[in-house]
Amino acid sequence: MTAETRYAASPAEVLRWNTEQTRKELLIEKLFVQDEIKLVYSHYDRFVTGGIFPVSKPLQLMAPDQFKAQYFLERRELGIINVGGAGTVKVDGESFEVAFKEALYVGKGKKEVIFSSKDAAAPAKFYLNSTPAHHEFPSRLVTRQDAEVVTLGTPETSNHRTINKLIVASVLPTCQLQMGMTELKTGSVWNTMPAHTHDRRMEVYFYFEVPQGQSVCHFWGQPQETRHIWMQNEQAVISPPWSIHSGAGTSNYTFIWGMAGENLDYGDMDVCATPDLR
């Protein structure tokens, strides 16, 4: 297991970043390595992003040095979405079968979390987000049928999409973590438009199902001072709370959004009118 630390930055500081530093600070280029656990610990809301790719053997999630904890969930909660083949997550001896695009919430206080694939020829890929937690909530599998589903946008504005709210307050209780998955319809490329900020929550986007040879341009920064990061399949990007988070691809794609902060109200956002973006 490897765990990398990323530090927070102010809007004034990032004005001096070039492309190379922007990618170094915000882009998570490689999350899935065979039979490894890759974690990135962000100082924005102490948010952890990770990829677990068990192929030939099960992998147990341990506390990285950054936590100064005896076990990973000693003071944290965990959200998992499987973006690969069928897999199993064993939580303190209880097994959860997690299929493609299904989610699992694991509450604070669970000591042993082990990930495995059903078939090494079609291994699971467990994408995870984790945040500090103050209360123990029960673990729960969230299937596509359990999700709160909303369809937004139109083909005319190239943002026709389905939002699957998987780990949110309207589906199950959490301390602060929220996760969901947005699937763009064929012919649509824009996500999260109109753009917005939410100063009481940070966010991480994970892009997948980006076709071979295609890319997604992720937009970030203050509404009056936007920047961009070109991203490939199965990469993630950290979005500061003061930043917009939006993207456009050269094809339709799917992305997972994860949020953390002091507010569980999904609708708490400050919308930026599209003509006002700079």
UniProtKB/TrEMBL annotation:
One of its GO terms (biological process) is D-galacturonate catabolic process. Its cofactor is Zn(2+). Pathway: Glycan metabolism; pectin degradation; 2-dehydro-3-deoxy-D-gluconate from pectin: step 4/5. One of its GO terms (molecular function) is 4-deoxy-L-threo-5-hexosulose-uronate ketol-isomerase activity. Its EC number is 5.3.1.17. Binds 1 zinc ion per subunit. Keywords: Isomerase, Metal-binding, Zinc. Zn(2+) binds at residues 196, 198, 203, 245. It catalyses: 5-dehydro-4-deoxy-D-glucuronate = 3-deoxy-D-glycero-2,5-hexodiulosonate. It comes from the Bacteria. Catalyzes the isomerization of 5-dehydro-4-deoxy-D-glucuronate to 3-deoxy-D-glycero-2,5-hexodiulosonate. PANTHER family: 4-DEOXY-L-THREO-5-HEXOSULOSE-URONATE KETOL-ISOMERASE. HAMAP family: KduI (MF_00687). Belongs to the KduI family. This is 4-deoxy-L-threo-5-hexosulose-uronate ketol-isomerase. It comes from Chitinophaga tropicalis. The gene is kduI.
